[in-house]
User: What shape does this take?
Amino acid sequence: MNRTHGWGLLLLLVVVLCGGLVAGVSADETVTQIDADHELATEETIQTYHAEGVVSGDAEQIQLTLTVAESADDVGIDRTAPLDWRNDYLRLEYDEEIDRTVRVFIPAEMVTPYTREGVEALNNSHTTSFEPIRDGEFLAVTVVLEGEDTVVFPLDKSASASYDIMDRANDRVERATGISLSGDEEWTYVDGDDMAGHTVIELEADPDAVEIQFDARHGQADELWVTMPEGDDPRAEVYWYYSSSDDLVYIVPKAEDPPAVRYKTEATLRDRIDGAVNDARQLAENLRDRLSLPWTDSEEVTTP
Assistant: This one.
């Protein structure tokens, strides 16, 4: 029996009433998910950035070069010196003719993640939104690139610093209660491409302690990590099961293009609750799509 199915049903009404559907790129718009598959996400590059204040690296999937810099001069922006104390900078240089919506993750070691809507480029009319992702491990940036394109965004140091406050608050709670809000174990992420061709993942894990989730918004700008079904589910693209004969947990992709997966072998209550909340959110979205309800994330339903 799915351990969190009951949680999802219980929280469905709450999500619907609160309008808890995450805004993002529409479901019919394909997003090229570079994520952390680029040279800036390596330990060597991060060390170079801390030593030199500027670093560049290429994406693996497409012709895209990323630069993070402390000085505007290093990203080709003519700005007055006093502004450099307030901002770092992110430049994306795209060298293909096709238009793309691209999502990239910038490591927290370069810029502490923070939330900001409608961030305007410094060199053209592009806009983006910043969002902490994967428990603050990265800053997610999604932007539309139009043919051969170069975009430079400011990274606000003061807003970035506010995310550190949450870490310090968690430390205080843990010292006072002995309970960590985030847990000790980090999520392990497996890209969908690594499971293409029905590649099965084997885990040495207690089936009662493990938490396995998949991205229900595969191919879209924002992630929605929902609980993976335990046992084959005809509606799911991926599932997991425990084999007592060899004492292993198996993650089995069913689709040719499976979604990304993440797991913890020692999950906390918060990990399970987060998954249950997202289960309810997905149910609400599916219900809206099936019934073609006349409301969206930014509109309120009015009745006569």
Observations:
- The chain has two domains: 5-20+191-291, 38-163.
